[in-house]
């Protein structure tokens, strides 16, 4: 009994040491989202007593956002009323993505000069243009069916689309000439907008301001643009459009019959709709931080959209305030061209908030992400159950025009991209989700989209990324909102998904590439007109293991031979033949016993002889290996292959490693190869301690590191790793003898590994933190070594 008492006393002393670490030991503070019971008055008082600050209290979910000293991170979960904690992760600022090909990466953004700017078209002029230039929509509204609805004067009139993004840069004619932007509000607190590296003079910037990043302006134009640009016949852009999409250019001829001007319209999917800007990203550098958005700020914006719609539903009149904001607004669609990682796809806070949007009457549309081509790479809120997730397609017209502009060589685009099929864009994030749902929902063009916002108002931009497929689909939702005002948000969503056209994508893509197919608002409209579109969202069951979940969509994990210590043998698979743009993927089930995974590619073979391949650089095979993390692309390699290649993954994270092949989009013919997977067993690190940990619990283990140690290694592994759904988030935090905290083991890695070179001798504390354990409890193993020798916590004294 005395021995037990002494060991407990040691534990109390260790906790005291943790609690008295200086708050500035990490040069900062931590932002976390706490799920809690309401009312939260006592909880907020306790947070403030710990030196923290409550930044926001949500109304739609029982949660608050707090900022606390780093050293208090372990204590906050012990506060009565705290049910769960989430890292207030930064969602990256969405930027145009490059388009890879063997010689170099094409820029994600290209700018061209607009020579003369015309007036926006009226509703009747848009309808007349749709009737007289139906093929023009192959460029301005690629194969979406928007032309047919525009012809019927269904153009989004009276429909408000909230664009949750970087705000709006005013002065761009594609939006300003018809005053498409009706207002907006900044949901970024000044402390976030002006965090480092913002200058000391930084102040909060309104939602509509020239200092904002151009992403939101470009996205808004994809929905509601309505302007015509005039070019001389010698313009490189005008010539490229006439070369590859002649119906998209309206040639104005002189009396002698020669081309005098070339008019090219920029028409969004819903050119008569209205944009309300909900700014969630800081303004651009050098004025502001110019960085990503905190998850909590995005949640605030989602909540704000719901509140505005509910106020409208309750009869509050929509009146514009002097600052451009409203207290009530009939928001019908929300576009979210961004995304971040999730441990609980479909059921975390961001994803759950989209379900509340649907219930309030709002159709949520989100970008799938640019983390392709490997599977299980979709980001949140695109992973939500009710979101329409927008994947990206690549059309030959868009890419060829881009190539002619880049090179200045007429016809170069056709040589570069000989395949006539529309393909799924290589960068587009793929499905399924970790809980076994097919993804994305739909696709639209995402390569060299035509718009404005990134450069000066008299310039045109060509941008790539699923950020620009999403607003095309959101515009489609706005058209249906106009055409079927009594349909529910869920019915609009379901009609779009049921109406997708998979036949448009000609590269052999599956549902995990192109979802239900290319956006087709004509078919969706017909479904709504016929009645019977369901008013529900399917909620799927799920298993504990991701490998079991993906079987629901017809996928099966494969194993690698790990029977022998240093085996060169393995499992061999045929790859292809793959069309240009077509994928083949192998989900490799890596367990905790695998020490290395070898991926060998051989017999890379083009179907066509050299004389018939791509005339610029031949045909090749794209190869990518994504580590076990789900919901974002953590790639060990992505490259183009024409010959044999081997990659060795040492100490791979447990879970599903995705080995992905794709026929290069520039190929003229099909490609084949042979894949061999082999593995060696892991040399288990000596276990220092194991046990169980609950959600919110933290355990402290002392270790004495001897003097003269060159290298100390700490490793924390747990069962609920990336191979499991949901993924548990355990952190390994070290307290050094000098009372400095080391948070380098508090990441999304599984296992967490920390290596310390020349560690100071003395007492080290390893703190195992069950930061977020949705499963309730988890088993863990902690290994600590000094120069390879196992260390153990000191035993309690004997009687």
Number of strands: 40
CATH architectural type of the largest domain = 3-Layer(aba) Sandwich
CATH class (first level) name of the largest domain:
Alpha Beta
CATH topology of the largest domain: Rossmann fold
CA-based gyration radius = 28 Å
Number of domains: 3
Mean of residue pLDDT? 89
* Number of H/I helices: 18
Q: Per the principal axes of the C-alpha atoms, what is the gross shape?
A: globular
Helical percentage: 10-25%
Residue windows where pLDDT falls under 50 for at least 5 positions: 1-27, 562-568
Main sheet properties: 8 strands, mixed
What class, by secondary structure content? alpha+beta
Identify the CATH homologous superfamily of the largest domain: Peptidase S8/S53 domain
List its traits.
single chain, Jelly Rolls, Rossmann fold, 3 domains, 18 helices
Provide structural commentary:
- By secondary structure, the chain is an alpha+beta fold.
- It has three domains: 2-27 and 685-790, Jelly Rolls; 155-224 and 272-453 and 463-530, 3-Layer(aba) Sandwich (Rossmann fold); 557-681, Jelly Rolls (Sandwich), CATH 2.60.120.
- The chain is 21% helix and 30% strand.
- The chain is built from 18 helices and 40 strands.
- The strands form ten sheets. Strands 10, 11, 15, 17, 18, 19, 20 and 21 form an eight-stranded mixed beta sheet that branches. Strands 32, 34, 37, 39 and 40 form a five-stranded antiparallel beta sheet that branches.
- α8 runs parallel beside α14 (470-483), α10 runs parallel beside α11 (349-360) and α14 packs across α15.
- The longest helix has 19 residues, at 295-313.
- It is globular and about 100 Å long.
- The model is unreliable at 1-27 and 562-568 (pLDDT under 50).
């Amino acid at each position: 009994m005395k021995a037990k008492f002494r060991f407990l006393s040691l534990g109390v002393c260790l906790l005291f040491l943790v609690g008295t670490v200086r708050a500035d030991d990490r040069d900062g503070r931590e932002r976390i989202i706490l799920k809690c019971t309401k009312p939260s008055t006592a909880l907020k008082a306790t947070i403030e007593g710990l030196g923290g600050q409550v930044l926001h209290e949500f109304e739609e979910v029982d949660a608050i956002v707090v900022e606390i000293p780093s050293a208090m991170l372990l204590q906050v979960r012990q506060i009565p009323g705290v049910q769960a904690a989430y890292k207030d992760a930064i969602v990256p600022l969405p930027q145009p993505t490059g388009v890879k090909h063997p010689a170099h990466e094409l820029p994600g953004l290209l700018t061209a000069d607009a020579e003369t700017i015309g007036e926006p078209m009226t509703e009747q002029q848009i309808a007349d243009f749709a009737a007289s230039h139906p093929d023009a929509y192959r460029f301005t509204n690629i194969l979406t069916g928007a032309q047919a609805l525009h012809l019927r004067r269904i153009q989004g009139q009276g429909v408000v689309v909230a664009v949750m993004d970087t705000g709006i840069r005013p002065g761009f004619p594609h939006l300003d000439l018809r005053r498409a932007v009706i207002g907006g509000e900044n949901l970024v607190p000044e402390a976030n907008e002006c965090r480092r590296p913002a200058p000391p003079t930084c102040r909060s910037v309104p939602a509509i301001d020239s200092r904002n990043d151009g992403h939101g302006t470009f996205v808004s134009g994809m929905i509601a643009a309505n302007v015509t640009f005039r070019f001389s016949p010698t313009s490189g852009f005008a010539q490229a459009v006439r070369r590859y999409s002649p119906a998209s250019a309206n040639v104005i001829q002189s009396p002698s019959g020669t081309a005098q001007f070339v008019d090219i319209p920029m028409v969004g999917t819903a050119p008569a709709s209205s944009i309300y800007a909900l700014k969630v990203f800081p303004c651009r550098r050098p004025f502001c931080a110019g960085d990503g958005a905190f998850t909590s700020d995005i949640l605030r914006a989602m909540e704000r959209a719901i509140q505005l719609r509910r106020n409208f539903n309750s009869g509050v009149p929509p009146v514009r305030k002097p600052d451009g904001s409203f207290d009530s607004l009939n928001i019908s669609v929300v576009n979210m061209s961004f995304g971040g990682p999730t441990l609980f796809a479909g059921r975390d806070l961001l994803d759950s908030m989209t379900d509340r949007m649907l219930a309030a009457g709002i159709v949520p549309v989100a970008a799938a992400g640019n983390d392709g081509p490997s599977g299980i790479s979709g980001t949140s809120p695109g992973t939500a159950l009710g979101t329409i997730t927008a994947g990206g397609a690549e059309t030959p017209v868009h890419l060829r025009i881009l190539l002619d502009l880049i090179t200045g060589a007429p016809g170069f685009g056709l040589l570069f991209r000989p395949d006539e099929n529309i393909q799924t864009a290589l960068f587009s994030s793929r499905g399924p989700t970790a809980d076994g749902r097919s993804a994305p929902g739909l696709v639209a063009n995402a390569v060299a989209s035509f718009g404005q916002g990134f450069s000066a108002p008299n310039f045109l931009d060509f941008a790539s990324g699923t950020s620009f497929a999403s607003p095309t689909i959101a515009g489609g939702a706005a058209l249906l909102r106009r055409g079927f005002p009594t349909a529910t948000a869920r019915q609009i969503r379901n009609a779009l998904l049921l109406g997708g056209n998979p036949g448009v994508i000609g590269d052999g893509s599956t549902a995990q590439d192109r979802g239900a197919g290319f956006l087709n608002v004509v078919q969706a409209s017909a479904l709504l007109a016929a009645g019977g579109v369901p008013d529900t969202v399917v909620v799927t069951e799920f298993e504990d293991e991701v490998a079991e979940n993906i079987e629901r969509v017809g996928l099966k994990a494969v194993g690698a031979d790990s029977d022998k210590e240093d085996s060169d043998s393995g499992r061999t698979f045929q790859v292809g033949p793959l069309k240009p743009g077509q994928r083949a993927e192998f989900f490799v089930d890596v367990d905790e016993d695998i020490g290395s995974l070898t991926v060998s590619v051989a017999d890379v073979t083009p179907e066509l002889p050299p004389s018939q391949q791509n005339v610029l650089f031949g045909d090749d095979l794209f190869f990518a290996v994504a580590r076990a993390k789900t919901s974002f692309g953590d790639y060990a390699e992505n490259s183009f292959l024409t010959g044999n290649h081997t990659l060795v993954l040492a100490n791979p994270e447990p879970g599903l490693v995705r080995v992905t092949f794709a026929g290069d989009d520039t190929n003229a013919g099909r490609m084949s190869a042979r894949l061999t997977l082999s593995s060696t067993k892991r040399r288990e690190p000596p276990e220092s301690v194991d046990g169980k940990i609950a959600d919110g619990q933290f355990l402290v283990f002392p270790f004495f590191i001897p003097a003269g140690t060159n290298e100390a290694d700490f490793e924390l592994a747990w069962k609920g790793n990336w191979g499991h759904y949901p993924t548990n988030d355990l952190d390994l935090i070290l307290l050094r003898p000098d009372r400095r905290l080391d948070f380098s083991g508090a990441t999304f890695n599984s296992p967490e590994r920390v290596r310390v070179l020349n560690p100071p001798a003395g007492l080290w504390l390893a703190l195992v933190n069950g930061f977020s354990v949705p499963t309730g409890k988890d088993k863990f193993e902690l290994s600590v070594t000094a120069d390879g020798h196992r260390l153990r916590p000191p035993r309690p004294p004997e009687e």
